[in-house]
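Students often ask why we bother predicting the structure of a whole assembly rather than each chain alone. The short answer is interfaces. A chain on its own may look different once its partners are present, and contacts between molecules only exist in the joint model. In this exercise we take two input lines together and write out one structure for the complete complex. Read the inputs first and try to guess which parts will touch.
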Amino acid sequence: MKAHVIVTLKTSVLDPQGQTIQNALRKIGVTSVEAVRQGKYFLLTLAPGLTLDAARAEVERISRDVLTNSIIEEFTYTIEE
Amino acid sequence: MKAHVIVTLKTSVLDPQGQTIQNALRKIGVTSVEAVRQGKYFLLTLAPGLTLDAARAEVERISRDVLTNSIIEEFTYTIEE
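Now the answer. The structure tokens for the assembled complex follow.
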């Protein structure tokens, strides 16, 4: 089982890195992108034998306690069996 | 329309950052995670009026030419209408 975790800055937090990418895109003539936000992606390979419920609980705990700085970031995840 | 782009190291490329996270997880007693790979996530807000085909072409071009170092990285994307 694999878990895909995406950690992004909360929408209220400025994202200078995303803004820089957007500016770079504009400079090379890309007009179809109105905004860019950057985040982090984690692919977790889970040990075999976990139930889906146990996997969800574990991934939520790891995402909340280790991968995300809850002051400025939030996370979403999907689990692939 | 929004595009979600995920850029990851190719599986043949070592990922010391992911390895470090995995070691940290093991140290705090997490045994349910066998491997961690880290990547980057980009949320692109696309200009209104693009067709789905045009959006796909544009997102592929940006991902390939700007967001990904094709020597060591690869990308996947989804488009949300």
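Check your guess against this: Residues 2-80 of chain A form a domain with the Mth169; Chain: A , fold (CATH 3.30.1280.10).
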